[in-house]
Amino acid sequence: MKKLKNEKELIKKAIALGMIYGEKRGAVQFEKTDSANEKIEYIYRLLVHDKLMQPLPEEQVSQQSIRHKLAIWASKQKT
């Protein structure tokens, strides 16, 4: 897995877009006390559930791989 050039910024963008998507959909209400890791995992699972993203094989699911996958997703989103 090759790290993206601006992966940190893309992760921030993915969290912001994912939070908006989840709340508009009515699937989640994020709290200020939720950690970034919790948000990232929930957003990933929601996007996979809604078939907006291909799932990783369950044995490859980790915070690092989820972050990378969300960064790729965010890079393809129009803002």
From TrEMBL:
Top-rank taxon, per record: Bacteria
UniProt protein name: DUF5062 domain-containing protein
Organism annotation: marine gamma proteobacterium HTCC2143
